[in-house]
Amino acid sequence: MSLYEMTLTEAEGLLRDKKASSRELTEAVLDRIAAVDGKVGAYITVDNEGALAAADAADARLAKGEGGPLTGLPVGLKDLLCTKGVKTTCASKMLEHFVPTYDATVVTKLKAAGAVFPGKLNMDEFAMGSTTEHSALQTTRNPWDLTRFPGGSSGGSAAAVAADLCLASLGSDTGGSIRQPASHCGIVGMKPTYGRVSRYGLVAFASSLDQIGPMTKSVEDCALMMEAISGHDPKDSTSVPKEVPAYRSLMKEDEGKGLSGMTVGIPAEYWQAEGVDPEVMASVTEAKALLESLGARCVPVSLPHTEYAVAAYYVIAPSEASSNLARYDGVRYGISEREGEGLLALYKQTRSEGFGEEVKRRIIIGTYALSSGYYDAYYKKASQVRTLILDDFTKAFQSCDFIISPAAPSPAGKIGEEGDDPLKMYLSDIFTLSANLAGIPGMSVPCGFTGEGLPVGLQLLGRHFDEATLLKVAWHFERAANLTQARPRL
């Protein structure tokens, strides 16, 4: 096995036992990026110099017997996480040359843990999209089939992990942007509970929905990353002061019992949804049977307001986006088109040139929904539906420990096939966005492949701040399914 193919857990053991150095590991990853990323297009920025300097520092710590489980391990970052001295573009012309003066809290935490950052990863512009085709800077391709998209908006983060261009990565999830690309790329992805991980330094899309989470090659790696990035942050007013569980040890407790005594919720609204690819449903049905063989008991649950989730989300998210993106006016930072006369011309030209079509579309939708005379009819009504969706989950979890569904209704599609049909893209989030509206944790774990060899993901949803249960279930499922050895060939 090559160094770049390793999981975080495997590489941690290698470095701890002094069978390899962080510099050797980092050089292997950087060489892999140089050799393969021309095909995949996962990285917007590769920081060779910074990564090697961090690797040398990590080796010095390890030589002294210092450092933790992430020390010296290469982790990619979605390019909406602020990194001091390194470009943060949000895959937009608006911020193409923006260099932050500070680090996001998750970056600070990973630096403190000794992680190495090879670079910044491609995404849909300002995280608005489900394919990563809406990046203004480049196209990212799915490592399993280079004619297909990797999902989005964290498509670069998912593709980089699947293609062994980093050992793990961070993405962000506003309506499924970690779980859906994780499903399409055959990796593990977790959206934590809203408030579990600090959003400070995350360039905001929709502030009440955004959440940062790990994208990894294994469930144990996901637990390791969760331990590193979780925790209260006074810089984020929505960060919740809860103790961070020891996820890696908790998921292995009572290992011999499997999932005995646990109850799985099967919502009819997800399992009988129209338009789900038959091969996706077949893989998820097999996954359900495997969970039962591990001792879990399946029970029916109801999420009756699911039919309104897409409509509510696509009022709330664009409304918050239109407010958040108002700051990009050509005055303070980002591009500034100053050819016209007057302030209004500056605003108009800068925003017309700086934003892509999908971002403009959502700004217009959001501005309309918040405008005088329409606020009560749209934003207020959507917020009320959001409360009903939260109540649905609260009631469902009274009779089950976790809920399962497909992570995405279909496998990864061909690049360009969605064309000018934004509705098709919006509906691809049908299984994921309710978790963001409710603020609950969710994750995708590989559960099979289609006849064309495309990955399929099983989504697990849990109670607020109960990521430990999801990781335990996913860990047992992963071991039984034995799919982690399958890798794309590039």
UniProtKB/TrEMBL annotation:
Keywords: ATP-binding, Ligase, Nucleotide-binding, Protein biosynthesis
Domain Amidase, residue spans: 24-471
Keyword Translocase assigned: no
Range of residues in the leader sequence: none
E.C. designation(s): 6.3.5.7
Catalytic activity: L-glutamyl-tRNA(Gln) + L-glutamine + ATP + H2O = L-glutaminyl-tRNA(Gln) + L-glutamate + ADP + phosphate + H(+)
Residues at the active site: K78, S153, S177
UniProt xrefs under SUPFAM superfamilies: Amidase signature (AS) enzymes (SSF75304)
Family the UniProt entry places it in: Belongs to the amidase family. GatA subfamily.
Function: Allows the formation of correctly charged Gln-tRNA(Gln) through the transamidation of misacylated Glu-tRNA(Gln) in organisms which lack glutaminyl-tRNA synthetase. The reaction takes place in the presence of glutamine and ATP through an activated gamma-phospho-Glu-tRNA(Gln).
Assembly mode: Heterotrimer of A, B and C subunits.
Protein name: Glutamyl-tRNA(Gln) amidotransferase subunit A
Originating organism: Desulfoluna limicola
